[in-house]
Structure formats: structure tokens, C-alpha cells
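Ticket #415: bound-state structure for PMT.
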Amino acid sequence: MALCGKVSAINLQGEIECVSLTNKKILLGIGGGIAAYKSADLVRRLKERGAEVRVVMSQSAQEFITPLTLQALSGHPVASDLLDPAAEAAMGHIELARWADLFIIAPATANIIARINAGMADELLTTCALATSAPIALCPAMNQQMYINAATQANLSSLSQRGLHLWGPASGSQACGEVGPGRMLEPLQIAEAATAFFAPPLLAGEHIMITAGPTREAIDPVRYISNHSSGKMGYALAQAAHAMGASVTLISGPTALASPVGVTRINVEGADDMLSAVMADIAQHSIFIGCAAVADYKVADIAPQKMKKSSENMTLALVRNPDILASVAALANKPYCVGFAAETQDVEHYAKGKLAAKKLDMIAANDVSVPGLGFNADSNALHVFWQDGQHALPATNKLTLAQQLLTLIANQKHA
Ligand code: PMT
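RESOLUTION: The complex was predicted; output attached.
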């Protein structure tokens, strides 16, 4: 199956080709910062997406993590010495720089950023940066004061103007005890950014709105009704859609997930909030995907104060929530509408019923009775239906599944 770097489509066998890092050659440059220990995980993350990874380390990086660890994980000797005859005999530094499809530097310390900006070639990592014609992505990692310092900012801005990509940094608590910008992105986020970097722009020009996660329907100021949705499926869709060239608005119920890079996220609580957020902006969107597990009912009268245990039994009066997906599909200028149907029995029957009743263009039937799939799991499987067709997407991780579903959407929207 031809993957990353080629146009995603349904191939002749009816399999969905999707984006990944298969056959991509990634050179990982590791600078000398505390975040260097995360680079081991980054190698794993890149490799599990199919990339071939080679590592070049700065001298100081080796104080934080051993070349042996990275050699074991990458499956290749680690390069670190500019003047190492043995290494040069294997894959010399110019060859290494030429070999790469993408050069990721993570962590990119203030020192490395400054030296790359100055064009210095006094050690292997910066020499590779100078010698490569591959795109370079810097993942800054440093103390927050060092990051906001005018010198670092000037270096980053000059490198960005020269076409280097800046992935991060994130903001938060730092190894030094301070709080602020300068944390390296998590390995998973960097691997996602790399995937996005190579993704074919199958959804270029599309504006996609995706609902994700659960809704919370308040009972009183401290209690609510909700469900087991983690948001992972919807966030994977948002991330994959961005990777495939779409501009993405993610309307998210409460989740513990970080926003996918490059996606506009609007946080909501209850179904009413979700409906308002969707309707406020839907006119700007060409595709709507309802992946959220919206509570079908809300409490009729939310108690203004914490409710007290006054009797043995309690009855809550519930009223129907608005149907967000059906409301979007009923718009005069409706976008291409895709629903999900989370079912535990008669999955196909109920899903097809929702496709027709809500006047959708497509529905992804999600059998949530299968252990390890669906709600709050990392994997999922879908059976997708549209008016005159269907396609089964077998169990896989949610990001791959998201790419496959979006590929189907892109194909069917223009069919
Ligand atoms: O978030 P995860 O942990 O990753 O889990 C993913 C998931 C299982 C939540 C997801 O894959 C999924 O199946 N989402 C749909 C859940 C759902 O509420 O299904 P439903 O059959 O009840 O609703 C049908 C469709 O109508 C859905 O697109 C839903 O978003 C939409 N809906 C439902 C009720 C309502 N009031 N408004 C809606 O828009």
C-alpha cells in the first residue's frame, strides 16, 4: 500500500490508503537539554508510524542520554563526532544530511538554535543542519527566561524567516521548577507534527468542524450527567484533518486531551453550549463531523445550590437535548454532514436509521460493545454507510482510522 507522500485514495483492492511516515527518512538531532531523555520515546513514536530514523547527537546531549540507548531504539549507529573516521566510512556527515527527508531537532536548545542561526559547523549536529537540503523542524526546549530572551526570539524569528519550522514549545512547569514557555512538545505531538508535515493535502481548501468528547449536563453546581467519551476519536479526526490540509474547528466537550497542533478548539460543557458554538460558526464550514457523545437528555431544572440528601430516593426530571447533528443537516446551506452512531446491538440497522432520519451524507457505525474499542480506548473500528455504498474500516489505532474515514469523506464528497 503506497502511503505517506502519495495521494491518499481508495486503491483498486478497496483498501484505504492513508498518511503515515512509512518510507520517510527522519534524521533526529538531539541537543543537550534535560528534555533529551524524551528523545528515546520520540524515536519509538516515529518508528511506529513507519519512519526510518537515524540519530545525531550533540556532545552535551550525551550527558543526558547515552548513544547506546538511541542506537538500540533506532536500529542504527548514532552519529556524534564530526571527525570520526569510522563513522565517516559508514555514513559520512554529508551523506547523513543528504539522506534525510526531514531533519527534526529535539530538543533544540537555546545554544543549538543560536549556532544554527549563525551557520556554525563546529560539531556534527549543526554541520548537518548546514549541509542538509531537507526541511528542518526545531522543537525548542529551554528555561522560560532563556526562551523569552530577545536573543533567542531573534534567532528563532530569523530561522523561521529562512524556512525552518518551529514545532512548539509548549508552556507549563519546567524541570528547573519555573513555569512558562519553553517545554519541548511531547514525543507524540512531535510525531504527529511529522505525520502532518508529510500528509497529502487531500482536504486542502476544506473547512471542517468536528464535535468531540462528551457533554456534561449539570444537575447542581457540583454534579453532572455525562458518559465515557474521552474525546480521542474526535481529536484524532481533528489532527488527521489538519494533516490532510483542512482548516479545522474542534468543538470539544470536557476532555483531558491536549489540543492537536494547528486546530482551532472551542471548549463547551453541555449540549446547549455545543449547539450554540456549532451554530455560531457552521456557515464557514464545508464539512461537519459529529463525533461527540452528546447527552440525549439534560436535567429539567438545574438546582442553583448543591442538592442535599433529604430522602432515600430521588427522581430527576430530564428533558431532551437539541440534536446538534440533525440541526446542522437541516440547514438550508448545509455542509457535508457525517454522523457517528454508537451502538451496542443491531449496529447496522440503527446506524442506517440515523443516516436517513437525520438526513446525513454519511454515518460511521461504531459498535461500542467490543472490548478494547470505542469509548475511551486507543483503538476503534467503524462501518461507514452512505446512501448507495458502505465501507468497513477494521480495528486500528484512532489516528489511522481517522485518516481512513477522512479519505472516504474526501472521496465521497466529490463522487
Ligand atoms: O471519545 P472516545 O472515547 O474516543 O469515543 C469515541 C466515540 C465512541 C464517542 C465515537 O466514536 C462515537 O461513536 N461518537 C458518537 C456517540 C453518540 O453519541 O452516538 P449517538 O448514536 O448517540 O448519536 C448519533 C449522532 O448524533 C452522533 O454523531 C452524535 O454526535 C449526534 N448527536 C446525538 C445526540 C444529540 N443530542 N446531538 C447530536 O449531535
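RESOLUTION NOTES: The longest strand covers residues 389-397.
TICKET STATUS: resolved
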